[in-house]
Amino acid sequence: MASLYESIDRFFGVSERGSTIRTEIIAGLTTFMTMAYILFVNPAILSAAGVPKEGVVAATALSSAFATLVMALYARAPFALAPGMGLNSFFAFVATPLIASALAAKGLEGREPWQIALAAVFIEGIIFILLSLSGLREAVANSIPASLKYSIAAGIGLFLTLIGFNIIDLVGPEGPDPGVSLNVERLTSPEVLLALTFTLVAGVLMALRIPGALLISIIAAMIAGWLLGVSQPPGSVVSLPEFSAAFKLDIAGLLALGPAIAVAVVFTFFMVDFFDTLGTLTGLSAKAGLMDKDGRIPGIGRMLLSDALGTTVGAVLGTSTVTTYIESAAGIESGGRTGLTALVVAILFLLGLIFTPILTAVPAYATAPALIIVGILMMSTISRVRLDDPTEAIPAIMVLAGIPFTFSIADGMGLGFISYVVLKAATGRWRELNPILVIVALIFVAYFLSLPDIYAAIKKG
């Protein structure tokens, strides 16, 4: 037993990073409890795009377990991975409808839009693997200012909060104003009342520092809904996993859309995943003390490759982009510093495979509080931006506001990157820029200029 303990300690560098095996295990449990909501939320979101709900549950659990296991054993970092929030919303509510429009225009209605979207995610993952192996992705990561990385995480957080309100129909475009407005008739509905009540419950539990506050609030809301007759409990507790969404990606269908549309969809997934991952890894590494004095993250290449492998395998299994989770911060706060923390999370995700009936019975009003709260947690990263410096603050706020208000993570990031380069250049602070950062901004310029043609091409087929 002593030799096994020592082997684990040595392999993960537990003592070297000032931790203990017990602490790492507790940290892994904490991380899983704070992000287990993805097993309920991801199926709810992707099923809106037509992906089989039971299949998404299995794909979510297995892809999360695989990617987190790679992070644990290869990168040996305390970060957990799962299908990304925001990324799955883009998949379901932006990419799939656009693909459906293009298919209709081309007379290809027999193909499933979500299967083509999975193909785009798969190709994006392959590109990421190649970029990670080449070192280019790591070079880009090291070139991006911390303020932009933190503002991306905050912008995604605000976007998630908006999605949380939207899935219970509390806000939407149905009101008298042309933009998002309050759906007054929904204020007294039992679903909204349960969602808002348990959002506050989750907040109280978090303030009391109770581990697994989000998971507790979801389960409590679900049970309360059953008791009140708002929704029905599952007919069973466990079942064999159903991989009805696996191996359904339609690469031929993606190519049938034409090169312009295919490249546009893949490129958008690429942009969103690329910068979401970089922002999350930077924030978590800083919190875990894994960032060096120059702001670089030792071993980030392995972390990025773990992420890329997770995305590729996840697409094959039937889920949207897999990425590193900001909720890993909960485990880090509990003392997790090594891949042992991630290993515990991976094992727990595997166990989640057999609880499909319960997971698919969780209603939207129970998951909405998790989206709202997680969004708030992610927004806290904006406090790390120097808001007293206009050349840092303005790009950061452009990202923060741009992501939710355009309902597009990529669009919000583009606004921030372009404004950062312009402001630094216009104020004579060229030394704070680097060639890679300027190239990224120019890519975003090209991306924005091409959007009218992309959407026109999609509509015309």
Provide an overview of this structure:
This protein has one domain. It is built from 20 helices and 4 strands. The chain has helices spanning 2-12, 21-35, 38-46, 53-75, 87-106, 113-134, 136-143, 146-167, 190-207, 213-228, 251-256, 259-288, 300-317, 328-333, 339-351, 356-360, 364-379, 390-406, 409-426, 435-460; strands spanning 81-83, 171-172, 181-182, 322-324. Helix 8 runs parallel beside helix 18 (390-406) and helix 19 (409-426) runs antiparallel to helix 20.
Properties at a glance:
461 residues; mainly alpha; two-stranded antiparallel ribbon; 20 helices; globular
* Total domain modules: 1
Structural class call reads mainly alpha
Tell me the strand percentage band.
under 5%
Low-confidence stretches: 174-178
Q: Walk across the major sheet and give the strand order.
A: 1-4
Helix/strand order, N-terminal first: HHHHEHHHHEEHHHHHEHHHHHHH
pLDDT averaged residue by residue: 85
Query: How many E strands?
Result: 4
Number of helices: 20
Largest sheet: 2 strands, antiparallel
Helix content: 55-70%
Instruction: Output the radius of gyration.
Output: 21 Å
Instruction: Report, as a whole number of angstroms, the end-to-end distance.
Output: 64 Å
**Could you state the oligomeric state of the chains shown?**
single chain
Q: Looking at the structure, what is the overall shape?
A: globular
